[in-house]
Protein backbone atom coordinates (compact mmCIF):
# COMPACT_ATOMS: atom_id res chain seq x y z
CA UNK A 1 0.00 0.00 0.00
CA UNK A 2 1.21 3.53 -0.78
CA UNK A 3 2.53 5.58 2.09
CA UNK A 4 -0.13 7.89 3.52
CA UNK A 5 1.03 11.30 4.71
CA UNK A 6 -2.46 12.33 5.75
CA UNK A 7 -4.73 9.77 7.31
CA UNK A 8 -7.99 10.16 9.19
CA UNK A 9 -10.19 7.52 10.72
CA UNK A 10 -13.78 8.09 11.73
CA UNK A 11 -13.03 11.80 11.85
CA UNK A 12 -16.08 13.74 12.97
CA UNK A 13 -16.73 17.36 13.86
CA UNK A 14 -19.99 18.63 15.28
CA UNK A 15 -20.97 22.23 15.83
CA UNK A 16 -23.99 21.87 18.10
CA UNK A 17 -26.50 19.96 16.04
CA UNK A 18 -24.62 20.45 12.77
CA UNK A 19 -22.36 17.57 11.78
CA UNK A 20 -19.78 19.44 9.70
CA UNK A 21 -17.61 16.36 9.07
CA UNK A 22 -19.08 12.93 9.43
CA UNK A 23 -16.97 9.82 9.98
CA UNK A 24 -14.28 10.71 7.47
CA UNK A 25 -11.71 8.13 6.41
CA UNK A 26 -9.24 9.95 4.22
CA UNK A 27 -5.84 8.82 2.97
CA UNK A 28 -3.64 11.16 1.00
CA UNK A 29 -0.51 9.53 -0.41
CA UNK A 30 2.99 10.97 -0.39
CA UNK A 31 3.62 13.07 -3.48
CA UNK A 32 0.09 13.24 -4.84
CA UNK A 33 -2.14 16.20 -5.58
CA UNK A 34 -5.49 15.53 -3.96
CA UNK A 35 -8.56 17.71 -4.56
CA UNK A 36 -11.37 18.19 -2.07
CA UNK A 37 -14.60 19.02 -3.86
CA UNK A 38 -18.13 19.61 -2.75
CA UNK A 39 -20.84 22.22 -2.42
CA UNK A 40 -20.68 25.09 0.07
CA UNK A 41 -20.91 23.86 3.62
CA UNK A 42 -20.03 20.24 2.80
CA UNK A 43 -17.13 20.12 5.29
CA UNK A 44 -13.98 20.81 3.28
CA UNK A 45 -12.66 23.72 5.34
CA UNK A 46 -13.54 22.03 8.63
CA UNK A 47 -11.56 18.98 7.49
CA UNK A 48 -8.57 21.16 6.62
CA UNK A 49 -8.74 22.93 9.99
CA UNK A 50 -8.68 19.58 11.81
CA UNK A 51 -5.69 18.43 9.75
CA UNK A 52 -3.83 21.54 10.85
CA UNK A 53 -4.80 21.28 14.50
CA UNK A 54 -6.72 24.56 14.23
CA UNK A 55 -9.94 22.96 15.43
CA UNK A 56 -10.36 19.84 17.52
CA UNK A 57 -12.22 16.78 16.27
CA UNK A 58 -15.32 15.70 18.15
CA UNK A 59 -14.42 12.10 17.41
CA UNK A 60 -11.96 10.05 15.38
CA UNK A 61 -8.26 10.29 14.67
CA UNK A 62 -6.01 12.37 12.45
CA UNK A 63 -2.41 11.67 11.51
CA UNK A 64 -0.42 14.13 9.45
CA UNK A 65 3.11 12.89 8.73
CA UNK A 66 2.52 10.51 11.60
CA UNK A 67 1.72 13.37 14.01
CA UNK A 68 -1.49 14.14 15.84
CA UNK A 69 -2.22 17.80 14.99
CA UNK A 70 -4.34 18.33 18.11
CA UNK A 71 -1.40 17.33 20.33
CA UNK A 72 1.52 18.54 18.28
CA UNK A 73 0.19 21.55 16.37
CA UNK A 74 3.56 23.33 16.22
CA UNK A 75 5.38 20.36 14.77
CA UNK A 76 2.62 19.97 12.16
CA UNK A 77 2.77 23.69 11.40
CA UNK A 78 6.51 23.45 10.85
CA UNK A 79 6.13 20.77 8.20
CA UNK A 80 2.82 21.64 6.61
CA UNK A 81 2.24 24.83 4.63
CA UNK A 82 -1.25 26.28 4.67
CA UNK A 83 -2.72 28.80 2.25
CA UNK A 84 -6.10 29.86 3.65
CA UNK A 85 -8.86 31.16 1.39
CA UNK A 86 -8.01 34.69 2.34
CA UNK A 87 -4.40 35.29 3.26
CA UNK A 88 -3.73 37.92 5.90
CA UNK A 89 -0.59 39.91 5.18
CA UNK A 90 0.54 43.12 6.78
CA UNK A 91 -0.45 45.37 3.91
CA UNK A 92 1.69 48.31 4.95
CA UNK A 93 4.79 46.07 4.82
CA UNK A 94 6.48 45.01 1.61
CA UNK A 95 6.37 41.46 0.22
CA UNK A 96 9.94 40.90 1.38
CA UNK A 97 9.21 42.23 4.88
CA UNK A 98 6.16 39.98 5.18
CA UNK A 99 8.25 36.96 4.22
CA UNK A 100 10.97 37.98 6.67
CA UNK A 101 8.34 38.10 9.39
CA UNK A 102 7.14 34.58 8.52
CA UNK A 103 10.73 33.34 8.52
CA UNK A 104 11.24 34.80 11.97
CA UNK A 105 8.05 33.17 13.28
CA UNK A 106 9.30 29.85 11.94
CA UNK A 107 12.71 30.24 13.54
CA UNK A 108 14.63 30.29 10.26
CA UNK A 109 18.05 31.94 10.86
CA UNK A 110 18.40 35.34 9.19
CA UNK A 111 21.02 34.51 6.56
CA UNK A 112 19.22 31.32 5.57
CA UNK A 113 15.91 33.25 5.51
CA UNK A 114 17.32 35.88 3.17
CA UNK A 115 18.49 33.25 0.74
CA UNK A 116 15.19 31.37 0.83
CA UNK A 117 13.22 34.60 0.42
CA UNK A 118 15.14 35.49 -2.75
CA UNK A 119 14.47 32.00 -4.06
CA UNK A 120 10.73 31.99 -3.43
CA UNK A 121 10.24 35.56 -4.67
CA UNK A 122 11.99 34.65 -7.89
CA UNK A 123 10.04 31.44 -8.27
CA UNK A 124 6.69 33.14 -7.72
CA UNK A 125 7.54 35.89 -10.19
CA UNK A 126 7.55 38.54 -7.46
CA UNK A 127 11.21 39.58 -7.45
CA UNK A 128 10.51 42.87 -9.24
CA UNK A 129 7.78 43.91 -6.77
CA UNK A 130 9.41 42.52 -3.63
CA UNK A 131 9.91 45.96 -2.09
CA UNK A 132 6.44 47.30 -2.72
CA UNK A 133 3.85 47.38 0.05
CA UNK A 134 1.38 44.52 -0.21
CA UNK A 135 -1.47 47.06 -0.12
CA UNK A 136 -0.71 47.72 -3.79
CA UNK A 137 -0.81 44.03 -4.77
CA UNK A 138 -3.52 42.51 -6.96
CA UNK A 139 -5.34 39.39 -5.84
CA UNK A 140 -3.11 37.28 -8.11
CA UNK A 141 0.06 38.79 -6.62
CA UNK A 142 -1.22 38.23 -3.09
CA UNK A 143 -1.94 34.58 -3.85
CA UNK A 144 1.57 34.13 -5.25
CA UNK A 145 2.95 35.79 -2.16
CA UNK A 146 0.80 33.38 -0.14
CA UNK A 147 2.41 30.46 -1.92
CA UNK A 148 5.86 32.02 -1.44
CA UNK A 149 5.02 32.20 2.27
CA UNK A 150 4.05 28.51 2.27
CA UNK A 151 7.22 27.45 0.44
CA UNK A 152 9.51 29.47 2.64
CA UNK A 153 9.53 26.79 5.31
CA UNK A 154 10.08 24.02 2.74
CA UNK A 155 7.02 22.04 3.73
CA UNK A 156 6.42 18.36 3.04
CA UNK A 157 2.71 19.03 2.56
CA UNK A 158 0.95 22.11 1.17
CA UNK A 159 -2.73 22.58 2.02
CA UNK A 160 -4.44 25.14 -0.18
CA UNK A 161 -8.00 26.31 0.45
CA UNK A 162 -9.61 27.63 -2.75
CA UNK A 163 -6.24 28.76 -4.13
CA UNK A 164 -7.53 30.23 -7.39
CA UNK A 165 -10.65 31.92 -6.05
CA UNK A 166 -11.04 35.39 -7.49
CA UNK A 167 -8.15 35.11 -9.95
CA UNK A 168 -8.65 36.02 -13.60
CA UNK A 169 -8.22 33.10 -16.05
CA UNK A 170 -4.61 33.89 -16.87
CA UNK A 171 -3.57 34.36 -13.25
CA UNK A 172 -5.45 31.18 -12.32
CA UNK A 173 -3.64 29.29 -15.05
CA UNK A 174 -0.24 30.52 -13.90
CA UNK A 175 -1.09 29.68 -10.33
CA UNK A 176 -2.13 26.15 -11.27
CA UNK A 177 1.20 25.67 -13.02
CA UNK A 178 2.95 26.74 -9.83
CA UNK A 179 0.89 24.26 -7.79
CA UNK A 180 1.64 21.50 -10.28
CA UNK A 181 5.37 22.28 -9.96
CA UNK A 182 5.21 21.53 -6.22
CA UNK A 183 4.42 17.93 -7.03
CA UNK A 184 7.66 17.63 -8.99
CA UNK A 185 9.53 18.55 -5.85
CA UNK A 186 7.83 15.78 -3.96
CA UNK A 187 5.53 18.08 -1.99
CA UNK A 188 2.14 16.51 -1.33
CA UNK A 189 -0.68 18.92 -2.15
CA UNK A 190 -4.19 18.92 -0.73
CA UNK A 191 -6.43 21.59 -2.19
CA UNK A 192 -10.08 22.49 -2.07
CA UNK A 193 -11.84 24.10 -4.98
CA UNK A 194 -15.12 24.62 -6.77
CA UNK A 195 -13.46 25.01 -10.15
CA UNK A 196 -13.79 21.55 -11.53
CA UNK A 197 -11.85 21.85 -14.76
CA UNK A 198 -8.92 23.26 -12.79
CA UNK A 199 -9.11 20.45 -10.27
CA UNK A 200 -9.22 17.94 -13.08
CA UNK A 201 -6.18 19.52 -14.71
CA UNK A 202 -3.86 19.13 -11.73
CA UNK A 203 -5.24 16.56 -9.27
CA UNK A 204 -4.20 12.91 -9.25
CA UNK A 205 -7.26 11.99 -7.17
CA UNK A 206 -10.29 13.82 -5.91
CA UNK A 207 -12.66 13.31 -3.01
CA UNK A 208 -16.22 14.53 -3.28
CA UNK A 209 -17.85 15.76 -0.08
CA UNK A 210 -21.57 15.95 0.52
CA UNK A 211 -23.08 16.95 3.86
CA UNK A 212 -19.87 16.22 5.73
CA UNK A 213 -19.32 12.80 4.16
CA UNK A 214 -16.78 11.69 1.62
CA UNK A 215 -19.19 10.19 -0.91
CA UNK A 216 -16.89 9.50 -3.86
CA UNK A 217 -13.16 9.19 -4.22
CA UNK A 218 -10.72 8.29 -6.96
CA UNK A 219 -9.19 9.43 -10.22
CA UNK A 220 -11.50 11.30 -12.58
CA UNK A 221 -11.90 8.28 -14.90
CA UNK A 222 -12.73 6.10 -11.88
CA UNK A 223 -15.40 8.50 -10.67
CA UNK A 224 -16.75 8.88 -14.18
CA UNK A 225 -16.99 5.13 -14.44
CA UNK A 226 -18.99 4.91 -11.24
CA UNK A 227 -21.27 7.86 -11.82
CA UNK A 228 -21.66 7.99 -15.59
CA UNK A 229 -21.13 4.35 -16.57
CA UNK A 230 -19.62 4.78 -20.01
CA UNK A 231 -17.24 7.52 -19.13
CA UNK A 232 -15.15 7.74 -22.29
CA UNK A 233 -16.66 9.12 -25.48
CA UNK A 234 -15.14 8.00 -28.73
CA UNK A 235 -16.04 9.79 -31.94
CA UNK A 236 -15.58 7.74 -35.03
CA UNK A 237 -16.14 8.87 -38.61
CA UNK A 238 -16.44 6.08 -41.15
CA UNK A 239 -17.85 5.32 -44.57
CA UNK A 240 -19.46 2.08 -45.66
CA UNK A 241 -22.17 -0.10 -44.16
CA UNK A 242 -24.08 0.74 -40.99
CA UNK A 243 -21.53 -0.01 -38.27
CA UNK A 244 -23.80 0.55 -35.30
CA UNK A 245 -24.48 -3.14 -34.51
CA UNK A 246 -20.82 -4.06 -35.00
CA UNK A 247 -19.57 -1.36 -32.66
CA UNK A 248 -22.26 -2.05 -30.08
CA UNK A 249 -20.95 -5.61 -29.72
CA UNK A 250 -17.47 -4.53 -28.65
CA UNK A 251 -16.77 -5.43 -25.02
CA UNK A 252 -16.80 -2.24 -22.94
CA UNK A 253 -19.16 -0.30 -25.19
CA UNK A 254 -22.17 1.01 -23.29
CA UNK A 255 -23.99 2.87 -26.06
CA UNK A 256 -23.55 3.75 -29.73
CA UNK A 257 -25.19 6.65 -31.50
CA UNK A 258 -24.99 7.37 -35.21
CA UNK A 259 -25.38 10.84 -36.65
CA UNK A 260 -26.57 11.36 -40.22
CA UNK A 261 -23.10 12.54 -41.32
CA UNK A 262 -21.55 9.13 -40.65
CA UNK A 263 -20.09 10.03 -37.27
CA UNK A 264 -20.63 7.46 -34.55
CA UNK A 265 -20.36 8.30 -30.87
CA UNK A 266 -19.45 5.43 -28.59
CA UNK A 267 -19.85 5.63 -24.83
CA UNK A 268 -17.32 3.23 -23.43
CA UNK A 269 -15.98 1.97 -20.14
CA UNK A 270 -12.40 2.52 -21.26
CA UNK A 271 -10.40 3.78 -24.20
CA UNK A 272 -11.11 1.22 -26.89
CA UNK A 273 -10.02 3.14 -29.98
CA UNK A 274 -7.80 0.31 -31.32
CA UNK A 275 -10.61 -2.25 -31.00
CA UNK A 276 -13.11 0.13 -32.62
CA UNK A 277 -10.76 0.83 -35.55
CA UNK A 278 -10.23 -2.88 -36.09
CA UNK A 279 -13.96 -3.59 -36.01
CA UNK A 280 -14.69 -0.91 -38.62
CA UNK A 281 -12.26 -2.55 -41.04
CA UNK A 282 -13.57 -6.07 -40.31
CA UNK A 283 -17.11 -4.89 -41.04
CA UNK A 284 -16.05 -3.52 -44.42
CA UNK A 285 -16.04 0.15 -43.43
CA UNK A 286 -13.46 2.84 -44.15
CA UNK A 287 -12.20 4.72 -41.12
CA UNK A 288 -11.82 8.46 -41.74
CA UNK A 289 -11.32 9.85 -38.25
CA UNK A 290 -11.11 8.68 -34.66
CA UNK A 291 -10.93 10.80 -31.53
CA UNK A 292 -11.59 10.49 -27.83
CA UNK A 293 -13.09 12.80 -25.25
CA UNK A 294 -11.90 12.25 -21.72
CA UNK A 295 -14.55 12.08 -19.04
CA UNK A 296 -15.12 15.43 -17.41
CA UNK A 297 -15.25 16.04 -13.70
CA UNK A 298 -17.87 18.67 -14.39
CA UNK A 299 -20.18 16.04 -15.82
CA UNK A 300 -19.51 13.63 -12.95
CA UNK A 301 -20.24 16.32 -10.38
CA UNK A 302 -23.40 17.57 -12.06
CA UNK A 303 -24.78 14.09 -12.59
CA UNK A 304 -23.97 13.00 -9.04
CA UNK A 305 -25.84 15.91 -7.48
CA UNK A 306 -28.74 15.59 -9.93
CA UNK A 307 -29.17 12.02 -8.75
CA UNK A 308 -28.88 13.01 -5.09
CA UNK A 309 -31.60 15.65 -5.59
CA UNK A 310 -33.73 13.20 -7.50
CA UNK A 311 -33.49 10.64 -4.71
CA UNK A 312 -34.28 13.26 -2.09
N1 LIG B 1 -17.27 27.69 13.53
C1 LIG B 1 -18.42 27.13 13.16
N2 LIG B 1 -19.51 27.17 13.94
C2 LIG B 1 -20.65 26.59 13.58
N3 LIG B 1 -20.85 25.92 12.42
C3 LIG B 1 -19.82 25.87 11.58
C4 LIG B 1 -18.56 26.47 11.88
N4 LIG B 1 -17.71 26.22 10.84
C5 LIG B 1 -18.42 25.53 9.94
N5 LIG B 1 -19.67 25.31 10.36
C6 LIG B 1 -20.71 24.55 9.64
O1 LIG B 1 -20.17 23.31 9.25
C7 LIG B 1 -20.58 22.93 7.95
C8 LIG B 1 -19.36 22.68 7.07
O2 LIG B 1 -18.71 23.92 6.79
P1 LIG B 1 -17.33 24.06 6.02
O3 LIG B 1 -16.92 25.48 6.12
O4 LIG B 1 -16.39 23.03 6.49
O5 LIG B 1 -17.77 23.74 4.53
P2 LIG B 1 -17.00 23.94 3.16
O6 LIG B 1 -17.20 22.67 2.42
O7 LIG B 1 -15.61 24.37 3.41
O8 LIG B 1 -17.81 25.11 2.45
P3 LIG B 1 -17.32 26.26 1.41
O9 LIG B 1 -17.24 25.58 0.09
O10 LIG B 1 -18.43 27.24 1.48
O11 LIG B 1 -16.02 26.80 1.89
C9 LIG B 1 -21.51 24.04 7.47
O12 LIG B 1 -22.82 23.65 7.77
C10 LIG B 1 -21.09 25.22 8.32
O13 LIG B 1 -22.17 26.11 8.50
Automatic annotation (TrEMBL):
InterPro entries for this protein: AAA+_ATPase, ABC_transporter-like_ATP-bd, P-loop_NTPase
EC number: 3.6.3.28
Domain of life: Bacteria
Keywords assigned: ATP-binding, Hydrolase, Nucleotide-binding, Transport
Location of the ABC transporter domain: 6-236
Pfam families hit by this protein: ABC_tran
GO MF annotation, one: ATP binding
SMART domains linked: AAA (SM00382)
TM regions (residue ranges): none
Family affiliation: Belongs to the ABC transporter superfamily.
Protein name: Phosphonate-transporting ATPase
Organism from which the protein derives: Marinithermus hydrothermalis (strain DSM 14884 / JCM 11576 / T1)
Amino acid sequence: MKEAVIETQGLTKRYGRVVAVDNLNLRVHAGEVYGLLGPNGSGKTTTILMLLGLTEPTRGTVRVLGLDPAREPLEVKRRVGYLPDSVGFYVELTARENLMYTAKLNGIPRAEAQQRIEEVLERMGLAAVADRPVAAFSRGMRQRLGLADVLLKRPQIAILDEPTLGLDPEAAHQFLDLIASLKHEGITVLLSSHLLHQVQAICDRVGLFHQGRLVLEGTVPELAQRVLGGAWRIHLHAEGPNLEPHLAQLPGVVRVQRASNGVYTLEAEHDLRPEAAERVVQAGGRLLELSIEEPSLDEVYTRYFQEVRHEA
